[in-house]
Structure formats: C-alpha cells, structure tokens
Amino acid sequence: MPLQLRRLQPREPITVDAPARLHLGFLDPNASLGRAFGSLGLVIDAHGTRVDACLAERERIDGAVTDAERERIALCLARLQAAYGPATLAIDVVHAPRAHTGLGSGTQLALAVGTAFARLVGQPATSAEIAAVLGRGARSGIGILGFDCGGLLLDGGPPGDLRQSAPPLLARQPFPEQWRVLLVSDTRIEGLHGAEERRALASLAPFPQRLAAHLCHLVLMQILPGAAEHNFAPFAHGLTEMQQTIGEYFASAQGGVFASPDVEHVLRAVAAERTAGIGQTSWGPTGFAVLASAREADSALATARAAAQSLPHIECSVVAGRNSGATIRNAEARAPRSDAA
Q1: What positions does the domain GHMP kinase N-terminal occupy (predicted)?
Q2: Which tens digits make up the pLDDT trace of 173-210?
C-alpha cells in the first residue's frame, strides 16, 4: 500500500508527521532458506517525527535536532537533489524522538524530509522509492511500511537489489484499539547503530534454521491470529516467546536478552503480575509490554514505576497502536489528512 504522491505544483509550507514504530523481531537473521531477516513491527501513536519544510533561497536546517541529525538531514537533501533535481529547502524539525532508542527515528526523519522534498518539487515518488534514494530499509521494511499504512506489520525481508524495492509487505493486521503498550526506556544508553551494529551482526553465530522455523510458526499461527481475533493471551505469549528467542541470539552483542538490565528488571516485574507480551524494540534500550486494555496498562504503569523507583534513568509511558500511516499537510489544507492507501 505505497504512499502515492501526486505531481503537484510547488507549495509552502509542507508538514509531514511520521509515526514511530516498534521493531518486534526478525524471523531469520541468517537467511537459512535463502532470504534474510523478515520483520514483525508495530506502529504507535506517540514519539513521532514532525517536519515543516518549504522552498527557500538558502538551505536551512533548524528545530529539535542534534548536530549529528543536522548532518544526516543535509546528506538526505544532497541525495534527493541528485535524484530529483536541484531545489533548496528550509527544514524545521518540530519534534522527534531521541535517536537510537529503538523507535525508528532515523527512518522517520529521512522519509519525512524526503516526502516533503518530493512534494515541493512535484515529484511523484513513493515512500519506497524515497527510502531507496536515502539508503533506508537495508534490513527491515517496518519503518517504510509503517510510514505508508500503520498497524501490525510483517515484511518479507529485503530483496537482492535494494535499488528496486523495499522489503515486501506480507501481512497487515489492524492493532486492536483497546490494547495498549507500556514503553520502558533507559535514558543513559543508546542502542547499537552504524558501524557498531554492523560489527555486532557480523560477530554472531549462524542463526539455526530450527529457530527460524519456530519464529515463523509463532508469528503466523499465534501472534497474527491473536491480533486478527482480538485474542490477547496467545498474542502476548507468542510475542514474549519470540522476543526471548531472538533476544538470546543477540545477547552476546548487546550484553543480554535486553540491552538494559534495568529495563528488563522493570518489564519482568510487570509480566510477573499479569498477562503481557514483553520484549525490546530493535537494539533498545526501549523495552515494551503489550497489555490487553487501558485499565491493565494503567496498572502495569504503576507496577513499572514502583519497580523503577530507585532508577531515575528509567522512563515509563503508555501508548496505543496506530493504524494509519504518515500525514501530510500544506498551507491550503491545515487539517491533518492521511495520504495512506
């Protein structure tokens, strides 16, 4: 369901709201059947990225960005200019999550900037095409697909030639509206990224085919059916088992099943008192617990805060799933409008 961009006359300003995502795990990191990775993920309704952009006489990058993020935006603009023609933009990042916490902030920011650029120059590029230009989606397509349509998503892993397409969407389930997600994050650390991430992946032993088969079985026969039928217990048990399996595989690279022992401590306290699907998104340090209702989430939040009482670096919050993709607004239509299929 690609985000279709019509050929438009240049306009200003353009506002893009890109949603955050949780990466819930890979299916086959070692390509035991010839195709690597494959990802399960969930789009959430908080911690998104908002970018305002307009055509300008000189390039400007302002707002809620670090120096490193400013450099990444400048590189994105240079690649977009090379692909779609010269254009000078003023970019204002209104808000964005802290980078490298497992929320997909790099892809959000790149797609938001790329979508705004394409709109402003009248280029009918899809989000998958923009992602290819900007070098996103090398392993997971959840951020790209989540930008398009939201929900609980399963992708089939990257194709052999990343210039051709993003990882294909294999399944999408609307995330049940009554379910909630408790997020627990360690503000002292960042998840692995860049060269460290590549070295970590290269250091891992081959992922056993039997475990890949187990993960696929959990996703196809427990997690996705649980979401489709709003049957929480099998969903939660399947997700926890998937996360434990993949976490044990990555433990040697990140120091344990969770990147942060304190996040793990809090989440296991939450799961000890109720049915919950717990795990870590991407390389962390953000962990999650999926709960069956807002009431359960409020109770879990109280448990989490009690467990983290002596841990001031631990942040806890409750969010919902998001079943729609990015929104795009312009000066002529300031009310949010989803362009997702």
Answers
A1: 76-142
A2: 999 999 999 999 999 999 988 888 889 888 899 999 99
For residues 42 and 155, membership in a common domain is answered with: yes
Is residue 7 assigned to a domain?
Answer: no
Encoded amino acid at 203, one letter? S
Q: Could you tell me the maximum CA-CA distance found in the chain, to the nearest angstrom? A: 58
- State whether 202 and 288 are in the same domain: yes
Residue numbers of the domain that contains 270 = 180-319
- Nearest Cα to 291, choosing from 151, 176, 179? 179
DSSP code string of 52-87: EEEE-SS-EEEES--HHHHHHHHHHHHHHHHHH---
Choose among 326, 321, 322: nearest CA to 126: 326
Q: Is the pLDDT of residue 6 over 50?
A: no
At 235-276, the pLDDT tens digits run: 999 999 999 999 999 999 999 999 999 999 999 999 999 999
- 196 with 284, same domain: the answer is yes
Q: State residue 12 phi and psi, 5-degree precision.
A: -150, 150
State the CB neighbour count (10 A cutoff) for residue 100. 21
